[in-house]
What we know:
The complex is a heterodimer. Chain A contains 15 helices and 16 strands.
Amino acid sequence: MSVERYEMVVGLEVHVQLRTRTKAFCACSTRYGAPPNVNTCPVCLALPGTLPVLNAEAVRLAVRAAHALGCTITPISVFARKNYFYPDLPKGYQISQYDRPLAVNGSLRIGDNADGTPITVGITRLHLEEDAGKSIHDRYRSVTAIDLNRSGVPLVEIVSEPDMRSSQEAGAYLRALKQILEFTDVSDVNMEEGSLRVDANVSARLRGETRLGTKTEVKNMNSFSGVERALEAEFARQVAVLEAGGRVEQQTMLWDGERGVVRPARSKEASHDYRYFPEPDLPPLVLSKEWIDEQRQSLPELPAARRTRFAAEYALTAREVELLTSSVALADYYEQTARAHGDPKAAANWITGEVLAAVNAAGTSVREFPVRPSDLAQLLSLVRDGKLSHTAAKRVFAEMRRSGEPPAQIAEREGLLQEGSDDAITVWVDEVMAEHPEETRRFLSGERKLLGVLVGAVMKKSKGRADPKRVNQLLSSRASG
Amino acid sequence: MIGPRDPRDASPSAIDAVADAFERMEAVSAGSDGLNLILWTDRPRAAEAARLCQRNVDAGREGGILAGIPYVAKDNIATTELPTTCGSRVLEHYVSAFEATAITRLRNAGAILIGKSNCDEFAMGSSTEYSAFGPARNPLDPSRVPGGSSGGSAGAVAADIVRFALGSETGGSVRQPAAFCGVVGVKPTYGRVSRSGLVAFASSLDQIGVVGKTVHDAATVLEVIAGHDPLDATSTDDPVPRYRDADERGVKGMVIGRPKEYFPSTLDPQLTALCDRALDRMRALGATVRDISLPSTDLAIPVYYIIAPAEASSNLARFDGVRYGLRVRGSGLRDMYDRTRSTGFGPEVTRRILLGTYVLSAGYYDAYYRKAQEVRALIAEEFRRTFAAGVDLIFTPTTPTVAFAHGAKSDPYEMYLSDIFTVTANLAGIPGVSVPIGRLDGLPVGGQLLAAHFDEMAMFRGAYALERALGAEAHR
């Protein structure tokens, strides 16, 4: 009698806001954060007599997403009306796609099994639709306010197969999906701003059972970790019902993130008859094979391919690959630095270390990082060529982040360039040996452990400008000479 | 026959034309205490528009092809200067924040909007008795209906208030009242005229149409309002020919089909006789008349009364009391919806919303809506094959009867049957025109000419020829 006897089965429905300048069916701005109802016009307010006109850019982005998820794109898809009454749904219907969606039959690789075989999740369908507005219940006492800025914003709904078997897999799916949508520039994928929303279908069954159990739909999660926690909570609830000999009721559950529990939504929400029918105001969406192919060819390298290539081409560790391909911006940053510098390993060290630390500390993204890859490559070259110690390089790097100046210029001005010439180093070595007669005598008579003390003294005397390797060599040659 | 006024000729100025129209409105008692053809007017505003137009003309500027010509528009076409109520309580006092493309194009051509005409609520009806603002009356016989749903538009033209009016068609709502009022009514090909600003009833059938005193008036106005509009994805970019040129081309060599299904044995023999007289005149002008058959015709009414209400049930969902129009407060959201919509919509609109909601419901969709779409495709295919087989025009009576008395059709299905000869063109998307072809017991009879998709040219050739050939007989 334990949870281990049961298996979780999860399918996800993800709504993603497309990164268009204007709405799906009118010319209003999609900008987030505008004052309520500013981004509206007769069309998205559903004034009588208005008609939708499809935004071509939304179609292009949706097709890009579909390609990136390996979907088959249907040459003729049909918009449909999903009818229901709600105050933030101005037309009384949402324009969506129903029995003829834009794309079907894709898949997404979410990780690898222990034996190296990929774990993939099937994508049932991807379709275009418009967003509704927002009901605001807490702004005015005892009334609900409506903000229609979001009304008509273009979305794709991506529906997965019930292929996930744990909350971790669901989390991995969402992260992989987010990454692919970012890589392809399809969406901002920001859950806080609502540009990505997740509903989960979850059921429980005894391990070994092949039939699906009765599912419930879980809504109202606002982070990936929230999805994982909600799935665990709902799974536990279902298992408890089954263990008690009960039957899981098909219903909609709402996640309460603060309390960490799921609650049933009011039952009428689950019993909608949406009365779908083809949208007569929009002709079927007809896409030519040539155009569809063109969109596929214009896709950037996708995360999985880039990971494989990074590992092979730059001989990086799995951890480095994972970190460096977490976003297009970072992967691009790395590649540009590595190519300019010529030592991919050193570039990886710096970027996974210093650069990521700096970006995280600043709370920004690599996209806004002030140090250009070419400048970072130059800094790394100064270190490699012995002109800058690692410590000095860090100081220079800090200054580069502040001023955006090239590293050589900063190092020069700050007097941080290492003295590579034997003449200068010899003078410092001679002076140190003269100032430390006792240590020098013992060193020269074979007490090798004093080398470190003398090197340190030379470095101190040179104020860090001496190349420690060379100091080392010169001192060593005296001892053996 | 009167052509559109050349602003440079000696005909009355725009100022006089608008003043005359208002005086005529009063003379025939076109308002709510009389024929109830016109719902909303703003005389000072119209007079101002006329002065502006006249200044342009006097200054020698090109005033547009319709410069200074007053007109009325059906009250389901969005206007910013007058209310747009669709003949419904739910939109009482509503003034649109944007205007219909057709209205803009008419203004750019110099025409002056002087009023909004009465109609059946949301264009659902065939008599203009279902207006929330009271029934309209036929100016030729006030005891009878003017037809509908564009009864106010047809009546205003018949009463000589205006030379032309905008109406809208979903199943015959321009051609049928035009026939009942003895004027010309055109329904263009679906996609020919932008629907932007036409308050939707059934989007896949709706089309703005024109009522004209003469074929020439209607052809000229259609030329102005036709053509692609970026605001309507279903409007096409086919070039718009000069429909007025159809006059010179005649009907010599044209093949005119006479479909037997439109001349059932139950049809009044006098009405059949008027149609055959019209056909004889066309034959005399060099056309060939061919007996044809359109066997799916009797399916048109049932199909129409599935598709149109289905779309209407969705299109009218936006009248929910949330953003504009009527709101009747209630205890909570659901109650507000119920009260607003029950108070705001009249019985016929309610009936169609219920019908449409039913046929789209899970479990009924396939049996009703999907099946109806299949039959609709069949009807369209019959027309396509007929035109492909060398028929240029199809001639039928526009309506099975002349204008009926107020209250005569209390059974909704009886009322639906008055569109039996017109709905087919809406289902097929083809253009049609009703032209006066004579009188029966003093009441007008309309003859209908149907043409292939986007062949308004053929339609107008037939209409011009018929109008010319019948002359005064068309109104006797």
